[in-house]
Amino acid sequence: MTKKRVLTGVTTTGIPHLGNYVGAIRPAIRAAQDDNVESFLFLADYHGIIKCHDPAMIHESTQAVAATWLSCGLDPERTTFYRQSDIPEIMELNWILTCITAKGLMNRAHAYKAAVQDNLNNGQEDQDHQIEMGLYSYPILMTADILMFKANEVPVGRDQIQHVEMARDIAGRFNHRFKEIFTLPEVKIDEQVELLVGLDGRKMSKSYGNTIPLWENDKKTQKSVNKIITNLKEPGEPKQPDESPLFEIYKAFATPSETAEFTHMLAEGLAWGEAKKLLAAKINAELAEPRERYAELTANPAKIEEILQAGAAKARKEARVLLDQAREAVGIRALG
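Given the sequence above, the corresponding structure tokens read:
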């Protein structure tokens, strides 16, 4: 039986928070534990420099993201775990794909359209004012990440679905124009977990300043949870799940029966303060062991580097084969 390939990655632009864990890291690691799955997991550091121009942050984040995945249960012996920048074949494939990608497809990318709209809203005559090519064309680099390893499924948050669809479009165009060498990927969404909301009810994001850190101690986690917005209902007053982001975050860490019980407790008048204690306890219980492993790994960065280099060596063997096929297909080959 052929194993299903699952690939995902995390950009190296900050220290991972709860939204990264729930939306990408946890489902990817769960998928990697399936005997019928062949998993490719990577640190997207070249994606990181699109928006982050702080070299120290890129470096620090690379270590933090690697330690996070390893601490959360990634087994580098049964998966291919690598740093994007250690696979130069990805960048060469990125250029080949750039040459066949329709500009109109990139014009429709959500991030680019949002940046253009910001310029228009601010009265800029040039709608592309200060928009760099990294932002504009990064869906092509993401496509190269995916196609390089013939991924069947890509676990992503709902805000990233468009990029996987673009990867399918680009792969299909190449296969039709040259030779059928690329696998068309499918989106993989954990239907039990929506995009995790932050303290203020918006998407949990560093740019909004509404995140809950992963690697703080129990007491600091409780302080972060205490900042979740609620209404002014007093203890004893019935409360509904949609009255605070607290419920959606709780649901991401609870079983269906626990979620149902929590809903019942709110309806019976559970105080917001008590609800926040229950949520913090839920988070801390799940992360207790990973936090110990994270502390050990970050104290020994050479160990992390050793694991990444081993993963890169494994990945490059396969990447070279596919890149040679792509080069041959477009006419880049030896003379004679």
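Residues 12 and 59 are 8 Å apart (CA to CA). Try to locate this feature in the token string yourself.
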